[in-house]
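Hi team, as promised in this morning's meeting, here are the two structures we talked about. I've kept the exact order from the run log so nobody has to guess. The first one is mostly here for context; it's the second one we should focus on when we meet again. Sequence first, then the predicted C-alpha cells.
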Amino acid sequence: MVKIFNEADNPELSEIIDDVHELLILQCQRYIEFHNTIHITTWDEAHHRMPNYVGIADVSFGFGISNHYYRGNPHRFIIINWVKCTDAEIEPNEYKAIIMHELGHLLNSPDFLAEPDIIYCMKNKLPYDKDTHQQVRNSNALNNELYADSYAVLFGYGASLLTSIEKYNAIYRVIEYYDERVRSINNNVQLIGFVKPIVPFQ
C-alpha cells in the first residue's frame, strides 16, 4: 500500500499499515499483485480533495474507493478517519481489521447481480418490479459487506473486526446487516471474490 500522509505526523498508523503489509505480502497473492495500486491515507489529509465523500467519512472509521482520480490517474484508495477512530478508542488490531475489511472491498468483491432497474428491464424487455429491484439491491449490499468481512476473517482478524463493529454501533447506530455479518464472522465463513477493476472515466 502506498501511504499518502505524513508518516512523521502519524507513526502509529504507519506502523499498523506496515504490519498489515508484511502479513499480506507473505500470504495473499492478490495483495502481492495489486498492493502498489492501493493508496492509503487519512481523512484529515484527503478531505480537501474528496468533498463528495464527506457524508461517508462523517460516519465511518474507514472506507474504500475503487476508482478515485489522483494525480491524473484512477487509483484504489483506503481512507482512515483517524479522529473518529481515536474518539472510539480503536485498538491496533481493530485498525488492522478495519484496513483488512476495506482491502476486502477492493480485493475480494462479490460477483454482483445485475440490478433490474427500469432501464435494465426496458433493454431486456422485462416487466419492472420495484420489490424485485430492491431485493437485488439488498442482496448486493449484503454480499458486499460479507465478502469484505471475509477477507479480514481469512487472515485472522475476525474477532477484532467484531469489536470494531461494536464500537461503531455504540457511537452511531447498529450497522446494516448486523446479524448476518456477525453470524458470518463468528462462523469463520470464507468467501472468495474478485478484484475490483480500475476503470478510467470515459
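And here is the second protein, the one for discussion:
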Amino acid sequence: MLHLIPGLLTSPSSGWSPIRDYADRHPWGFVPFLALLPLLPALCAYFGATNVGWDLFGSAQERRLSSASAASLALMLYLTYVTSVLVMGLAVRWVLYRTPQRPAYSVATTFTAVLAAPLALAGIVTVFPLRWLLLPALALGALCTVLLLYRGLPAYLHLKRNDQERFYATCILAAGILVVLTLAFFFMELWWQPLDGGGYVAPVE
C-alpha cells in the first residue's frame, strides 16, 4: 500500500480511488503499512533524544535521554500512533453508522492509517529535536492530514460532497484530536512513571 501514498500526496482528488480499490481487494493490507510506518518517527526520536538532545524552554542547557529511557519513549510513541489509528477506525464507523456507505472496520482503518501518514512523515524531524524545526513540521503534517480528510472522505467512502459530508469529516476530526491527546497522555505517563531521575544524561561541560 505504501506505493499508493505518493500519488495521494501529489493528487489528493484522484489518489483516494486506488486506495479504496486496494482496501476492497485486500481488507487487511493496511497491517504491514501500519506496523512499519511508525517505526520511522520512533527510531528518529530515539536517535535525536540520545545523540542530539534538546534545549528546555527558559534554559540553554542541553538535555539528552539515556538509551533505556529513549527506547522506552520510542516504544510509547510507536504504540500511541498504532493505537490511535486502530481506535480511529472504530470512530469512523461510529460517525457513519446511519449512512448506507458505512465502511467495514478494515476499510475504515485503512482510511485512518493513510490519514495519519503525514504525521508519521513529519515525525522524521525528531532526529533533530529543535523547537524551531519540530513545531512547523508537526503543524504542516497536521494540516496535510486535515486536508486529506476533507478531500478524501467523499471520494474514499463514496459520499456526496455536501454539508452533511463536511459534518461527518468535522466529527471525525474532533474524535481524532480527542483520541490522539488521550492516548498520548496515557502512553507518555507509562513512559514517565518508571523514570527515577536516571533517565537523563547530563550535558558534558
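Starting points for discussion:
The mean pLDDT is 86.
The CA atoms of residues 95 and 167 lie 10 Å apart.
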